[in-house]
Amino acid sequence: MFTLRAAVMWTVNDFPAYAMVSGWSTKGYMACLVCKEDVTSGWHAGKVCYLGHRRWLPWDHEWRGKDKEFDGNTERHLRPREWSGDEIGEQLNRLDFSPFGKTFSQTRPSTHMNWTHKPMFFELPYWSKLKLRHNLDVMHVEKNVFDTLVGTILDINGKTKDTIKARLDLERMGIRRGLWMNRDSDKARRDFAFFSLNPNDKKEFLKFVSSVKFPDGYASNIARYVNVDGGKFTGLKSHDCHVFMQRLLPVGIRYLLPEDVVKPIMLLSRFFSQLTAKTLRKTDILQLRRDIVQVLCKFEMIFPPAFFISMMHVMVHLPEEALLAGPVNYRWMYPIERLLGELKKSVRNRSKPEGSIIEAWVQYESLTFCGIFLKSSKPPSLSPPPPLPPTSVDLDRARHIAGTPELPRRHRRASRRDFFSFHRIGSAVILPPPATNSDT
Ligand SMILES: [Zn+2]
User: Fold this and answer.
1) How far apart are CA 314 and CA 150, in angstroms?
2) What would you measure as the largest C-alpha separation in the chain, in angstroms?
3) What is the pLDDT of residues 56-67, one digit of tens each?
4) Which of 89, 122, 136, 148 is deepest in the core (most CB within 10 A)?
5) Taking every annotated instance into account, which residue ranges of this chain make up the domain DUF4218 (predicted)?
6) Helix or strand or coil: residue 414?
7) How far is the CA of 35 from the centre of ligand 1 (A)?
8) Cα 313 to middle of ligand 1, angstroms
């Protein structure tokens, strides 16, 4: 017996769950938990958008003095200040939160800003001393950024941020005259933007994507999700977006869009590629921190303000988190999503999902422990089974011993049951001579 001690280092979750574990709402004008009330946000095309990434540029950068190229204003603000855990704890202690439940009013007073409750993590004695308490999940950020970017440059109906509302918003702001609604005829028309692919180029791009072949196990069959005639993608999973963003997008759009648009997209692609690498160097992350600000500022000059959803903004904080907590692959949702997927597959009785999962998990653990036990046992007077890992069991030999017919090639993948039957047979039966063709 021993006393098990555990410590919560940080939380990993998607953006909506971020609000629950951190206590800071991720909706409204102050959605960013890192920038808090200091974030630059505004109402554009019927929703809150987050611009102002020039604040991360050096004070004397030439882009700070430009106005028409950006949102019509020059930028004189410094980057938002960083809050320490102690400061946040003190702030939360000063606020008075109403109890949970429908009987109490959940309307927040303005003094609370986006704080909805005090997270229970602050009861841990070390929690306020941590530099990084909640991770921005790079998997979801990359997926959302990809959806927004590709939806806009392919002008996919329902996904593009370059809508009529966005164009009217540009007119209201008095910027980018070239993107205003075309009112030459009696009806106003939304012309193709310079950052969108025209129908022929779009078809060419989708044909390229549907023709790509990846090595086995590298990615799923992305061609399955491409609808060339419909001009859209359907059902792309997070990992497909991950591969698409880093491998296909920079190659596919290279000669189809203007150079000014292609360059920041390629830089963004390289940003995610380097950020999600298994090994990170400090100098590389510092470079990524500068790169992502350049990318976002260039996007602000290209795309309408409606393009800048909160997921676009949080990219600016990703290198900072990598500097504090190291490589992203230990802090993102892929392994968790994979495990949850496996657990979900074990549900047989849909009215009792938890019971099914527990039963399957107990069986899995029992088999694992039995496997470890049987592998290490060496019965006397018989030759021990060869020390092969489960995936490289000689199935033909095992089946020959067991007297079962040989399976067709497509069924030859070693399963856990094969592993057990092989070891049981190998330790209990003296091997007969190999069968000849006339026997079978
Ligand atoms: Zn922020």
Assistant:
1) 18
2) 97
3) 999 999 999 999
4) 136
5) 275-376
6) coil
7) 4
8) 6
